[in-house]
Design a protein that fits this description.
Elements: H1 5-20, H2 24-34, H3 42-53, H4 61-84, H5 87-93, E1 94-97, E2 106-110, H6 117-125, E3 130-134, H7 146-163, E4 168-169, H8 176-186, E5 190-194, E6 208-213, E7 216-221, H9 223-231, E8 234-242, E9 249-253, E10 257-258, H10 262-279, H11 290-293
Helix pairs in contact: 1-2, 1-4, 1-7, 2-4, 3-4, 6-7, 8-9, 9-10
Length: 298
């Protein structure tokens, strides 16, 4: 594998970081102009497009790829914006549909779709402490790309700052991460998770739940679903995208529910993910993983 640290630096730091130095309307226009460059995120974009085509009939390939690149750029830019802007920026540039519960604890669930970092800041601005569940950052995952590794570490630090609470690093609900998630809920904090991690085909199926997304069978993690059902925790699905023309953020908070069991949790969130992917597959960061995510399984 060839590592191109220069491209990583350009795509993850220099372009989005320079846009963050500008007023947002100007910064967004700069990102939108860069998104027209077919060389940007070239390999990732082609893989994502190939994966998305296995789900949907995409009529305009170039427009899909432009939107995919723009989502990546805005998502990277948010690291710099969240660290340098106040909650006043959030109130000015984010349109909110729905509302968070008036009190914690609850589990806020989203997906690797759109640009969601400001949702943590929005929760914190409402007076909540929000812990993101996240895989630990392991240097080996980046195959020698020191820039990508440093960026991932800095993003997790930014997540903790935005949410006002430490990240909870995952490893299964029966391990320390599960205990920490339960403890956070019992402290009346918010636990946030991204619920579209493809299951390991060689893993223990007891750690997953079979549900449907886009009318196809998928397996989603069971650990947090079981915690939600056992703790009788309120679950709040949400998503955060943006207008491709103006860059205005759109935080959509769905109606909360309490899962009677783990399967209900997975089924309800599968419906939310279906709506998002069908609405805009270019905003789904895991499009490249669609063949693994949507495996043929009964």
């Amino acid at each position: 594998m060839t590592i191109d640290r220069t491209s990583t630096l350009w795509e993850s730091v220099l372009i989005p970081g320079s846009a963050a130095l500008l007023p947002w309307d100007m910064g967004f226009r700069r990102l939108a102009a860069h998104a027209r460059d077919a060389n940007l995120y070239r390999e990732a974009c082609e893989a994502a497009y190939a994966g998305a085509k296995t789900i949907f009939d995409i009529r305009d390939a170039e427009d899909w790829k432009r939107r995919y690149r723009l989502v990546r750029l805005v998502d990277h830019c948010d690291l710099f914006l969240v660290r340098t802007r106040s909650h006043r920026w959030l109130r000015r540039h984010v349109d909110v549909e729905g509302a968070w519960p008036t009190s914690a604890p609850f589990i806020a669930i989203t997906f690797h779709w759109g640009a969601g970092l400001w949702s943590l800041a929005h929760l914190h601005a409402q007076g909540f402490r929000a812990h993101l569940l996240s895989a630990p950052v392991d240097r080996a995952m980046f195959h020698g790309d020191s820039v990508a590794y440093a960026y991932a570490r800095e993003r997790n630090r930014t997540v903790a700052i935005a949410g006002g609470a430490p990240v909870i690093y995952t490893g299964g609900a029966s391990t320390t991460s599960g205990i920490q998630a339960i403890a956070a809920l019992r402290r009346r904090d918010v636990v946030m998770a991204l619920y579209d991690i493809p299951a390991d085909p060689s893993g223990d199926k007891r750690s997953t739940l079979l549900t449907r997304v886009c009318e196809r069978p998928v397996r989603l993690p069971a650990g947090l679903a079981r915690i939600a059902a056992t703790e009788r925790a309120m679950v709040v699905p949400f998503s955060m995208g943006f207008d491709y023309r103006s860059g205005r953020r759109r935080l959509r908070i769905e109606e909360s529910f309490v899962a009677a069991d783990a399967q209900m949790f997975a089924d309800r969130l599968g419906q939310s993910l279906t709506r998002l992917i069908r609405g805009d597959s270019a905003a789904w960061h895991f499009s490249a993983l669609a063949p693994q995510f949507f495996r043929n399984e009964n």
